[in-house]
């Protein structure tokens, strides 16, 4: 790709900032080959009816994408400011296939996030189609009072190299965020609440192929204090996923999940989390709570319990069928120590494994009397 419409787009947005609207007309194609700094927007609407594709110049994007620090995330652009509304029914295409193939050869490449909402205070992102992101589809960082709605996400690899880390949304250092009324077909978390995500509402999502609606991962970086608090998740349909409701916390000892994802030893808290009305179909674990994320040796994990507490979690009205992966087990609620894990309540759980066993969970270091109706099998702490 040689075309680059970025200068014209930046010029139009500059002219219409502070009270205007930029229209990307239906039936038009735009190509973006330059990292766009849209961080100083104010009182502007971006009406995207068109098809927008980012170039496949992986060398350029690795050198010039906006580095977000957390987990080495980068973004094609940074959309921020005050009172910004993006809508229009158009499509953003991240040209992901070249990235999926490149990542398979080198896990340390910097893959851009398709939609970077960075430092936005009061705004909305709605009625868009997001396709083929190289990494997460949405990264929401240092933002407040933003609504995402009617977003359609899809994009799978056309080669043998899987599209990895294609989370629907990752929220980070943000509060008062709403994510609702979306359809997400991806290969990682449907929504993930990363460190310091508070006052979040997620509702009415159709998630397929994902890793669930996830708190975390948290506690990855020693010396950091991660908070995820006051999160509500309602009315989720989860298909062909590893998890439905999920809380994943790193242990108190450094661990390596993969070469480009390692950590453990950080502190913080998960508090006041609600999951309600979750329908699952062919999901490995209906519910998963772990404080040993990234650590397969449970003996070591229990020797060095998580420095991050989990308190006041309520998960209710989860129903449907699990996959054969852990049959007959359909859930996993295992803390690294009772001292860092309390008041986890399960109510109205009705999940069935392929062999017909209902509500059979692996449990450990958790108050089983609050897991109403669950048949607990005690975890073997000597191994995983």
From TrEMBL:
Its main location: secreted. GO terms for molecular function: galacturan 1,4-alpha-galacturonidase activity; polygalacturonase activity. PROSITE patterns: POLYGALACTURONASE (PS00502). It catalyses: [(1->4)-alpha-D-galacturonosyl](n) + H2O = alpha-D-galacturonate + [(1->4)-alpha-D-galacturonosyl](n-1). The active site is at 211. Gene3D superfamilies: Single-stranded right-handed beta-helix, Pectin lyase-like. It holds the Pfam family Glyco_hydro_28. GO terms for cellular component: extracellular region. It is found in: Secreted. Keywords: Cell wall biogenesis/degradation, Disulfide bond, Glycoprotein, Glycosidase, Hydrolase, Repeat, Secreted, Signal. Its EC number is 3.2.1.67. The keyword Secreted applies. GO terms for biological process: cell wall organization; pectin catabolic process. Belongs to the glycosyl hydrolase 28 family. This is galacturonan 1,4-alpha-galacturonidase. It comes from Friedmanniomyces simplex. The lineage of its organism: Eukaryota, Fungi, Dikarya, Ascomycota, Pezizomycotina.
